[in-house]
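Hello K.,

You asked for the raw outputs rather than the summary table, so here they are, unedited. I folded two proteins back to back in the same session to keep the settings identical. This is the first:
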Amino acid sequence: MKIITFFTVVWLCAALRCFGQEKLWTAADKQSTIGQLIRTRDAVVRETENLTPEQWSFREAPDRWSIAEIVEHLALWEIVWSRELSIGARNKPQPELLKTTRPDSYYQEFIMEPNPHKAAEIAAPTGFIKGKDNLTFFLRGREQNLTFVRNSDADMRAIFELTGTPEPRNMHQVLIYHWGHTDRHLRQILKVKSRPSYPR
């Protein structure tokens, strides 16, 4: 009986300690992230939903992406983000890694810098998807990721990617990359549309 009572007390103490621990990813963090994902989603829709086939396929130069390819690239990244989030959210919280991670501002500044970035092969556009179908592809993935973030109870600031880097990235910072990457390519879309030879 004493043994049972002892283990009951130990279990209760552990449970209270667990439930009493405050999350590092606050409600404000979560709402801000959801807001950014919605804002960038809506901006992509606003800039592309009424394009003509000629506008979708226009290239400012032979080696540059069309708007269709830019949006396909964003859609492919939604698949990558989905995998990152679903795997990352199952990782064990490691708040001690916050001592060596970079600040959020680093990721915001890096993704928004003007220098060109080379797209990963897994997210390079194929050009096979035509016109507005790329927007449908993108919206499908974004809605899945929005639903995941809305419903997740994971502490995104305490959970880190499984990488061996000395400056690990927590899942909140992955989400900064997520919506920031969309902002980056929205600028690219606006640049394409600003060209004098862009179909009007």
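The second followed immediately with the same parameters:
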Amino acid sequence: MNIQNITALADQLQSLGFDNLGNLLLKRICFKPENFLLTHKIAKGKEFLDFRLYFEKQKKNEAYVLSYYDATLQQENTLDEAMLAGVDVSQLENKMGSINWKQIFNLDEKKKFDQNDKLTWEAEAKVESVIETLAVLEQDEHGKAIASSLKLKYWNGASFYELFGSINPVKNKSDVSQRFYFSENSIGISVEEAYRFLQNKWLEKQMQLKRKQADTTPESENDETSETNGSGLLKKRRLNQSAKGKRNKINQD
């Protein structure tokens, strides 16, 4: 095993702001893949930076290099919203927090079931209610992101894969992403530099959205005015045509 290569990569990541990834590198590289991904999440106040680091094996010396990473700036999901798609999000979160999900997803557990004893199926009934509510929440675009976030939060560490497979976070519309490449002998973009870049990108996105909303409002008002004016002109034209028709009739008589 090329320990020097792993050490160099770990030092590079450390200098960029990715802490304690040496062991994860070791676990991936020991399988000698052609390429692999590492995921890393960093909290920045109420914001989160989600990283996906892509490594490739060089053919000339079979050493691994960091080719690029994708960075996503995620705003904190507002789980405290009162209602969304008819769902009380806070109530749903409280219900999910009250369930022992590790026990629920333990499909090998053998316990007594008695239809007359509610205690033997009460937990499963609560789970069914949660799953139904999550399905309703996922009908809303923003609700999809919140539902995914809740699943990842409360199902983390539980063996849910057999029933649901992997759960990927749903990208929120407010999230912004960027890919940063690394060339040979380059220092690369650090975590802090990526954070500042994405913050600026997010602010730019918000400003564009505000301008778009501001531009849309006058257009709507103009459309209504045009329709009103158009109706008035049409009415005036009809009156003129009616008067002209009457004059022609009198002349004919």
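The chain has a mean pLDDT of 83.

Happy to rerun anything if the numbers look odd on your end.

Regards,
P.
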